[in-house]
Design a protein that fits this description.
Blueprint lengths: L6 H4 L3 H11 L8 H17 L4 H13 L8 H10 L4 H14 L2
Protein name: 3308_t:CDS:1
């Protein structure tokens, strides 16, 4: 769980969220585990502060659909982050994670 005292400092701005969505919609590899972990930490902080934000949930969906190969080591953590969102995409993200867990 993220330290809520400094959570707003770790969140993505709206402009950054739009850029991330556009970037993750492309097919490429994220082969640096440290970079992925740092990204997920900031995504978690953002979702904790804004659990109803559909764009943040869309980032999760893009990660598990287009970048699942890069998430293998972080799949449990991504699942924990997905549990924190309160959008309609939560079920879709969690279903895809369950599918990935069965097929790894």
């Amino acid at each position: 769980m993220t330290d809520l005292n400094n959570i707003s400092d770790k969140c993505f701005s709206e402009a950054i969220v739009e850029t991330i969505i556009a970037t993750l919609d492309q097919k490429f590899r994220i082969d640096d585990p440290q970079l992925m972990r740092q990204f997920l930490l900031r995504l978690e902080a953002s979702i904790e502060l804004h659990p109803d934000n559909k764009k943040l949930a869309q980032i999760l969906l893009l990660l598990v659909t287009k970048h699942s190969v890069d998430l293998v080591q972080e799949l449990q953590y991504v699942k924990e982050i997905a549990e924190k969102t309160k959008t309609f995409l939560k079920r879709t993200v969690l279903s895809h994670i369950a599918y990935l867990e069965k097929n790894i």
